[in-house]
Amino acid sequence: MSGERVLIVDDSKEVLEILRFLILEPRGYRVLEATNGVDGLRLALTERPDLLILDEQMPGMNGLDVIRALQEQNAQIPTILMTAFGSEELVVRAFRMGVRDYVIKPFEPEEMLKAVERALAEIRLRAERDRLITQLEEANRRLQQQVQELNTLYSIGRSVTSRLDLETVLTRVVEAAVFLTRAEEGLLLLLDPESGDLVLRAAKNVDTKRAQEMRIRLQDTLAEQVLRSGEPLLIGEGQIKVVTGYLVYSLIYAPLRTPERGTFGILGVTHRTKARSFTTHDVRLLCALADYAAIALENARLYEETETARRKLEAVLRETDEAVIILDPQQRILLCNPAASAALRISSTDVVGRPAAQVISNRTLLDLFLNVARRKQSLYAEVLLAGGRTYNAHLTPVESVGYVLMMQDITHLKELDRVKSEFLATVSHDLRTPLTAIRGYVDLLEKVGPLNEQQREFVDRVRRSIAHIAALIGDLLELGRIEADYDLEMEPLHLESVIDAVVESFRPLLEEKKLTLYWEPKPLPLIRGNPRRLRQVMENLLSNAVKYNREGGWIAVSADQQDGYIIVRVADSGIGISPEDLPHIFERFYRGQGPEVEEIEGTGLGLAIVKSVIEKHGGRIWVESQPGKGSVFTFLLHTMEDNPPLFRPLNTAPGE
Ligand code: ADP
User: Fold this and answer.
1) DSSP-assigned letter for residue 639
2) Where are the domains of the chain?
């Protein structure tokens, strides 16, 4: 049942009735009637039926006249023409005028019904097509709107990540918010951490005077609600009081938030003068824009922080007396502070970006650069620069930066050290002469007359003390010489041979003390060293291992090769070293605190000498010990292939 309206225009009452009662109404069509052309035309124009069944032959205005008149009025109503037999020519004319179908009178009801249904089916199809087209157009319009929204969001997204200044980005965000939600005005408010108020940061369509005054107190406002909950707010109907004297019809407030800072502002759009409302889709759009604004603000804050830190660092580097050069991983200069440019006599600005090797001519530094890249560890060296000043240069690889070269002026320390060594050497030397005289006279004492038992004992004690002072002076002189690089010529040597010779010289003493010594020399790569000084190292270590051992104990000496080093260990089963003594035993004159140590003769200078010699060789020494069980002294020296003698690696002891 379609219920379409059909207008019949015919001067024959009979035909009208047949059509109405026999054909149309039984099928649910609603029927309008006219018995002449003029009435038919009027009804057609006023009622706009879905179908017109029109008799051709009528007195006065005939069927074709009605069709023409309708055409003139631009009223297109699908029409079936009823004609008499033999008027084919007229039918052709009628088709030209847009008539859908014709039926020849007299007609069978079936024939007319088919014509009506054909015409209406076509009309329905057309209507359906038109509806689909409208739907399609609507979908297309929405799609275009979405594309436009996406484009806007995309371009805002790009502004956030581009290098645009913050002001521009925020203004763009607010403009986009107004554009996309079709709002009247938009604003971006930020929380002022000091006052706790919301302050206007960017706006669109807000007049300047109001913008300048805008400062929202947080209490009891909608903004406060958003800040507290971190959720967007959509208010649609009625007039809402937002700020004193500021009324809106509808609004959206979207929170500006980051995981780190929480909610710190609001992006808002409003309708102030027009009674319009926003949709949840608008809320989504605004939230996306608010996220962009939050990212832009956070980026700006982080940039500001980094910039401040950078400026501080720059100021520190500028003011410090230490010479600092920062290099990238390819050893191009990234930064050269004034102290460095003064020390190296280079310009601190012109050198930036240039390879260090092109700018710096000092050989020690150049070798240091070369070696740090190879070894990937901190190195240091003493560097004598033009002007006669000595620097302690540390070159350290720094992850994700490259390298940092720091140079401390140690000229005055070197001078002090030299004066101290000279003083010690002089004093020690000057003490030796009177000491020799004392020993001579003590020896003479027995020869010039008999001594009683007690006198002999006293003389013995004096002799022992003299021996102790002589040993002390001897050690002090040695230390002075080592530190003054005296007698320190380096040559290629086999360390295992040096150790072997010292071990052999200790055999009688070991037998006397009933100590077992384990030592199996094996061939090792050459090192650069001073044989006399290295012998001294081994003698001191072994003599301690004997002195601080127990009867029937053992000593184990080993020398191995590992990663470009020779590692020498001297282990003993002796009294060990207490944790309190351990950090100090390489210091000058330091002796263990316990009564066990006090009983044993010593100057407290043996290990100071050992350490000094090892360090002069670019090596390192350390000790591990368990009181009551024994100690292990370990030192390492670079093999010759891996030994630029000037450099001393920092923190390199394996197993430390
Ligand atoms: P000295 O042996 O003349 O006292 P050193 O400088 O050689 O001086 O040693 C310093 C201190 O280190 C010693 O007094 C002793 O306490 C401790 N020490 C050194 N070697 C050993 C060792 N092998 N076993 C135990 N303690 C040791």
Assistant:
1) -
2) 5-129, 163-305, 320-409, 413-483, 491-649
What pLDDT does residue 16 have? 92
> Within 6 Å (CB) of ligand 1, which residues are found?
540, 544-545, 548, 572, 574-577, 581, 585, 590-592, 597, 602-608, 631
Report which protein residue has its CA nearest ligand 1's atom 23: 545
Return all residues near 210 (Cβ < 8 A) that are at least 6 apart.
246
Which stretches of the chain drop beneath a pLDDT of 70? 1-2, 163-164, 208, 210-220, 237-246, 642-656
Return the CATH fold of 491-649: Heat Shock Protein 90 (3.30.565)
pLDDT for the residue numbered 561: 93
Query: What is the residue with the minimal CA distance to atom 11 of ligand 1?
Result: 591
Amino acid, single-letter form, for residue 564: G
Q: In the prediction, which pLDDT does 478 show?
A: 86
pLDDT of residue 339: 92
Residue 21, judged by CB atoms within 10 A of its CB (0-12, 13-18, 19+), counts as exposed
Q: One fold for both 163-305 and 320-409?
A: yes
Return the pLDDT at 152: 84
The architecture in CATH of the region 320-409 reads: 2-Layer Sandwich (3.30)
Predicted structure pTM score: 0.47
Centre of ligand 1 from the C-alpha of residue 541, in Å? 9
**604 C-alpha vs ligand 1 centroid, how far in Å?**
7
Q: Give dist(CA 107, CA 53) in Å, integer.
A: 13
- Give residue 374's pLDDT: 80
- Residue for token digits 């200078």? 605
pLDDT at 2: 64
Residue-level length of the chain = 656
How many angstroms does the Cα of residue 565 sit away from the middle of ligand 1? Answer: 25
